[in-house]
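Q: I'm writing up a methods section and want to include an example of the input and output format. Could you take the sequence below and give the corresponding predicted structure tokens, formatted cleanly so I can copy it straight into the document?
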Amino acid sequence: MKKSNLKKVPTMAKEIAITLISLFAGCGGSSLGYEMAGYLELLAIEWCKHARAVFALNFPKVDVKNIDIEQLTGKQLLKLINKKPGELDVFDASPPCQGFSQSDTKRDVNNSKNKLYFKTIELIKEVQPKVFVIENVLGMRRGKMKAAWNKIVEAFDKINYRVEFKVVKAEEHGVPQRRRRVIVLGIRNDIQKQFNIGDLFPKPNLTKVSDMSVGAHIPNVIGFSPGQFDDRFIPATEPMCTITKTMSAWLYEKSGLRRRPTTPELKLLSSFPESFKFTGSANQQWARIGNAVPPNITKAIGLHIKENILTQEVLNHFQPNTTKIHTLVEEESNQAA
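A: Here is the clean output for your methods example:
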């Protein structure tokens, strides 16, 4: 019998999924972005009942819980996802921003909600994820909040991570909205030293911001107004103003009609796909979208992490044995003691 000249094709190694947990998950804006980037979410934590319901509707395979994060320990969190310190890949969090927001004229450095940011850092130190991503409002770095911000920077300096901060522009990452957010991204020092990781943040993926204009997405609209604190006409050749939790923004149609954006339009202007479902009243739907991290932002960050930081080489290196990680955590605990 004549032998075949065909060579046996080597079996490709199965791709290791990047694992994720999300604290202060909201309705799932961040989670959707990571899902689009191919991540495996193990757990989401959110206190708002309506936000949890929307999350559960859109992510039926993700365990979403109502847990008091102030009382949560890293050990308890790891038990919930059946992981040991160092085994989780990405820890994502969006601590409440009301205490930092410039829209709050009575904002206070000592606002109890601000303490949740420090609690988030504490949990990161205990869980020791390979990478963490924290999102918050621009106002946390301005005015009288600078004192709180400086304390936050000091807290990051005390954990075992290379940490970078960046003001991310939503319209530079596929969101037709002029939204600014402070993103804090950290990579564990042992990974940084072993693999000499380069840029932590993705580069803008658009050459023309005009592609992210309101008019490019809603053709019958000629302008808009932020409404709540700055009621003025802005031409539709610009990206949408920041969509906040409250029903404030207005749209101007070619016919001269001044009206509120519809839920489908809010979704479009926040990079939610048509398939993403929102329930409840118009007020509730607006609040969920206004509070959410636009999915295309975390999609861009998630893809960058996947392609340049937590590559398959890195994941394979830490997959079989986490002894080094456990030792690292123990040493850090002993130093703290």
